[in-house]
Amino acid sequence: MRILVVSNLYPPMHIGGYEMGCRTLVDALRARGHDVRVLTSPSTRLADQPQPHVVRTLQMTAHTPAAMRARRSVEPGATVLARASHPTNTATMLQHIEEFEPHCVYLFNVFGIGGLALMDALQVLDYPWALHLMDRVPVEVSTDLNPDVLALFGAHDGTLYDGASIISMSRRLLGEVEQLCGYSVAQGAVYVPGWSTASLELPERDYAPAGRVRFVAAGRVHANKGTGLILEAAALMRERAGIDFSLEIYGDGDLPWAVDLAHSLGLDDLVRFGGWRSQAELQQIYRRSDSFLFPTWEREPFGFAPVEAAAEGCVPIITGGAGVTERMVDGVHCVLIDRTVESLADAMQRVCGGGVDLAAMGEAGMMLCREDLHLDTCVSTVEEVLASTAHRRARPERLDWRTYALMALKHNLAQQLQES
């Protein structure tokens, strides 16, 4: 198949798992012989290898370096351009459809690049398209818009998505989208979870050598991801006598805040901040660690990190309700907690005290991540969805000027409605 992928950001420019997941799927689809072209925005970071299949001509009006430094997701005055319609981006996508003639257009995060108009253009053309939800994109592209603007693009009642194949990381995520948007996705979704890229051979493991339990956390260092909870739980654990453990935290993000918090809690000698690590490095870290801490916010769409850790036998402790808990079972593959310092500390103490069978749980997690939660399984499902989408409707033989004119007219009307 020829597949046109559209994503607001694409590595090496990325914020988190959404962009990294997009690249992993693109690489896997290309490795299976599909002709994939990625349409995205420019990157301020250098790629580690050539990316001839990546076209960086979309204009990004959110998550720009200036906006991120100022902690703004959308620049002032750019609401329509970021969420509803960016005429240059819409025209660029249509031009690539004309030139590349993809069998299917595969959308990822379209927030910041005029996502509503991009999806509406595909609806107007009756073109085969799929939307991969790794976060609540339909919510983000509709926020702060005039109701009349939403109606213009069919985003007020969900009809915008009627022609799409929807892939969602979890039922929790799709349910959140439907609840916040106020409509149901009529066609439902195919669920493709987060995945592991581990080799099929199970690694040899040991647990708690010399009686010391090795806890680890990795990902974006941020309050939403539970970094503060982890540090406060570690401080509470230290107050409890007879508990021998270590804690390592890896990742970038708000490191100065985390380091200051650890210092204020008196954890300088206990906690090690290791900074950013490559996936290969993290696999080795997980393999020598006992338990992975993931007290993320309850609305976590899924969570790649606990899957990657479990694949190496590192038993996850996870907030109950996070998307990944739809696949991992409490007491079998992981330990579920309430998102409180006390609940996390209690779970850590159970691990340290032998109340959790790390060897049995670690083996179950490793098996799960080589079957249901393995990249090969997930890519096969994505292939089936895209093939079905491509064959469900006939692609238009050509685009004419009327499509471009209609989308330009809708953009101008959206601006007027938003300002009224």
TrEMBL record:
GO terms for molecular function: glycosyltransferase activity. It comes from the Bacteria. Pfam families: Glyco_trans_1_4 (PF13692). SUPFAM superfamilies: UDP-Glycosyltransferase/glycogen phosphorylase (SSF53756). This is D-inositol 3-phosphate glycosyltransferase.
